Amino acid sequence: MDFEFYDSLDSVDWDELSRLYRVAPLGDKRPGDLKIAFSNSRYKCFAFDSGKLIGAGRALADGVDCSYICDVAVLPTHQHRGIGKSIVSRLVELSKGHKKILLYSAPGKESFYRQFGFKRMSTAMAIFEDQEQAFEGGLVNET
């Protein structure tokens, strides 16, 4: 089955994208917030199957130093079909030329990103809006 990939925001239904993140599950992201986040992202990728949004991802990038790939999600009904791999590959390719390409993975998904050349960082740190939830979800630790 051939899927279509686009980088334009023109055909994005923000409510549909919000539902995708909720069921993927990557959390409850409001449609208006997603529109702002994707509009402010240098690179984006949307995957469609027969006109239905089935996957998405984006990268914040400055054009020289750093590109941060984030919010990669695929509908559970379409996972394990190479869609996520295609989205990440496209975002990595678009980010080439930056001195570093970063992302953080959901716990347990790190091996998926290793195939693209990502390595675990020993010095990455983060401040989350809900630090306790990030701690409970395994995204941060006390050390």
From TrEMBL:
<keyword id="KW-0808">Transferase</keyword>
<feature type="domain" description="N-acetyltransferase">
    <location>
        <begin position="1"/>
        <end position="142"/>
    </location>
</feature>
<dbReference type="InterPro" id="IPR016181">
    <property type="entry name" value="Acyl_CoA_acyltransferase"/>
</dbReference>
<dbReference type="Pfam" id="PF00583">
    <property type="entry name" value="Acetyltransf_1"/>
</dbReference>
<dbReference type="GO" id="GO:0008080">
    <property type="term" value="F:N-acetyltransferase activity"/>
</dbReference>
<keyword id="KW-0012">Acyltransferase</keyword>
<dbReference type="InterPro" id="IPR000182">
    <property type="entry name" value="GNAT_dom"/>
</dbReference>
<dbReference type="GO" id="GO:0005737">
    <property type="term" value="C:cytoplasm"/>
</dbReference>
<protein>
    <submittedName>
        <fullName>N-acetyltransferase GCN5</fullName>
    </submittedName>
</protein>
<dbReference type="InterPro" id="IPR045039">
    <property type="entry name" value="NSI-like"/>
</dbReference>
